[in-house]
Amino acid sequence: MNKLFVIAAAAPLALAACNAAAPANQTNAAAPAANASASAAPAEINAAGPADQVIGTRTVTATFTGWEMGDYLWANFTVPGGEPIAAQPGPSPIDLFLDAHRGQPMTIEVASVRTAIPEAGGMTEILRITGASTAEGHAASWWQHLSPADQAAAQRRFEEGALSGR
């Protein structure tokens, strides 16, 4: 079983128990399982699961600065002239795209999502990155254009870096 999948599958219960009283952008819903062979087009990347309610979305120019791994994985961004953003990365390949473009300006789609987290007492609002792009293209098209060897390398870098707290 893929190490990333095991971590992603175990993380939701741990965060819900620890962060029940955290501010809205610090509580996380179920972490999406990484899909190393993702080939979804940007329109196919959903902001919410079946029980999630999207409250609103915004598009922001930001720079991805790195990961914060606690009970869940958070993507951290600086926003010129604005408050930093910490949000759950959306489904792969968004996480891998962010990791590969660290320190580069990009456009991100941020959704405020209410999601059911029973361990946190019910519906909880979080931020989720539902799309990411640079001048070269969107996360999904970037992923599709990587060779299988480059996809494996990107997955390995992500697992060794982001999932170890770097």
Walk me through the structure.
- With 166 residues, this protein is of the alpha+beta class.
- The chain has one domain.
- Helix content is 26%, strand content 34%.
- The chain has four helices and six strands; from the N terminus they run H-E-E-E-H-E-E-E-H-H.
- Strands 1-2-3-5-4 form a five-stranded mixed beta barrel.
- A hairpin with a 2-residue loop joins strand 5 and strand 6.
- Helix 2 packs across helix 4.
- The two termini are 23 Å apart.
- The N terminus is likely disordered.
What labels describe this entry?
166 residues, alpha+beta, 5-stranded mixed β-barrel, globular, disordered N terminus
- How many DSSP H or I helices? 4
Query: So what's the overall shape?
Result: globular
Mean pLDDT across the residues is: 74
Radius of gyration: 15 Å
Short synopsis of the structure:
It is built from four helices and six strands. It has helices at 3-18, 94-100, 139-144, 148-161; strands at residues 53-69, 73-78, 85-89, 105-117, 122-134, 137-138.
Q: What is the secondary structure topology, with strand pairs?
A:
Layout: H1 3-18, E1 53-69, E2 73-78, E3 85-89, H2 94-100, E4 105-117, E5 122-134, E6 137-138, H3 139-144, H4 148-161
Parallel strand pairs: 3-5
Antiparallel strand pairs: 1-2, 1-4, 2-3, 4-5, 5-6
